[in-house]
Design brief:
Layout: E1 2-7, H1 11-22, E2 27-33, H2 39-46, E3 50-54, H3 62-72, E4 77-82, H4 89-95, E5 100-103, H5 108-119, E6 124-125, H6 127-133
Helix pairs in contact: 2-3
Length: 138
Amino acid sequence: MIRILLAEDRGTTRGALALLLGMEHDFEVVAQVGRGDEVVDAALVGRPDVALLDAELPGRSGFDAAADLRDEVPDCRVLVLATSGRPGYLRRAREAGAAGFLVKDGPVEELAEAVRRVLRGETVIDPVLAAASDPGRD
């Protein structure tokens, strides 16, 4: 089973995403949090394989939480999720050690495949977010 931590500040979105991911035969959502400053503690308890972090979390951004996970729970791969690619987002995700940067409102099948890909050691970057986030850098 692939163990997943989900960090999203909107409770209904978090719950729906957890439900959809939980329907994947090889996924188990082991932790759900609504704030970035709750991510590391939840990861230390739940020991996820992958953390899905909203870029804009209260308390600590998804980028800061990703960097914290890199230092505190280095075996956990991170996917940063955003609704849009704001300037600097892709750079911040990379600097924080994230293995991927994806649109959070995309099809759950694409997100599930991205989770599996990062566990195989691949980097996954949504091309639309990359272009919008860092024009001229990729």
